[in-house]
Design a protein that fits this description.
The chain is α/β, with parallel strands linked by helices and 254 residues long. It is 38% helix and 24% strand. It has ten helices and 15 strands. A seven-stranded parallel β-sheet has the order 6-5-4-9-12-14-15, sandwiched between helices. A three-stranded antiparallel β-sheet has the order 1-3-2. The protein has a three-stranded antiparallel β-sheet with strand order 10-11-13, with helices on one face. α6 runs parallel beside α7 and α8 runs parallel beside α9.
Length: 254
């Protein structure tokens, strides 16, 4: 197997399954542990993963939409179903970029709503649903990430107000700070927060603490967090001290 193909498979395994040991990766790929160690060293040098004792963990970075869309689908669907139930017919919903927002859009079919988004996959999902008033924000197209960004997107958002914003993230720090790996998306997310009456963060268990070098907002900008698993005590305390409701999908209240 060519090294490039091994690298792709290693990253896919780490991103879908979390941290993995050298021995496990060796068995999965059918190569020696020494080969895996060399691969991990190269991938770490390229900034794509972090080696830990006995293995590695992926640095998710700026992954293409199609790749992320295949990861943790059941968890995202559980979060999306709970989020959809929060919205009443006749309300307006602002949907962020990302795959969890897309899973939420799939839950909105047949509803009488206004949906505003810069997420091209959300637009494609809802375009034929005549019961939904669909507003697509303008901006520069990021083709691989299926989103619109830039000053045009931000200007559009300054003219709008939504009852709900459902926000995505790359990671949530123990202090409750919402982070993102994609710097160019951050100004759009901040403009969305200003346009939303109620701001709900959608974050599966892998987002605690997740990744991200750019701060989107603090916990004081959120009204609720919907996740699929209990949040670690430090993060939960920071969120609740800021008045944020933490909800585990499938339960009345976490």
């Amino acid at each position: 197997m060519l090294a490039e193909r091994r690298h792709q498979l290693i990253l896919r395994a780490l991103r879908s399954g979390g941290p993995a040991a050298v021995t496990d990766l060796s068995e999965q790929l059918g190569v020696s542990p020494a080969t895996i160690r060399r691969d991990l060293l190269k991938l770490e040098e390229d900034g794509l993963l972090t080696r830990v004792h006995g293995g590695a963990v992926a640095d998710e970075g700026d992954q293409p939409f199609a790749e992320v869309a295949e990861v943790r689908v059941a968890e995202k669907d559980a979060i999306a179903a709970h989020a959809a139930a929060m919205v009443a017919d006749g309300q307006s919903v602002l949907l962020d970029i990302g795959t969890t927002a897309y899973r939420l859009a799939r839950q909105l079919h047949g509803r009488r709503l206004t949906v505003i988004t810069s997420n091209l996959v959300v637009y494609e999902e809802l375009a034929d649903d005549e019961g939904i008033e669909l507003v697509l924000l303008g901006g520069m197209v990021r083709r691989e990430y299926r989103s619109l960004v830039g000053f045009l997107t931000e200007d559009n958002l300054r003219q709008l107000h939504a009852d709900w914003l459902f926000l995505g993230t790359s990671g949530v720090r123990p202090g409750g700070q919402v982070m993102d790996t994609t710097v160019v998306e951050v100004p759009v997310k901040r403009a969305m927060i200003k346009a939303g009456e109620r701001v709900v963060l959608l974050a599966d268990a892998q987002k605690f603490p997740g990744t991200g070098m750019a701060k989107v907002c603090g916990p004081e900008d959120l009204d609720a967090v919907v996740t699929n698993a209990p949040v670690d005590p430090a993060t939960r305390s920071s969120l609740e001290e800021a008045g944020v409701e933490v909800v585990v999908a499938g339960k009345v209240k976490a």
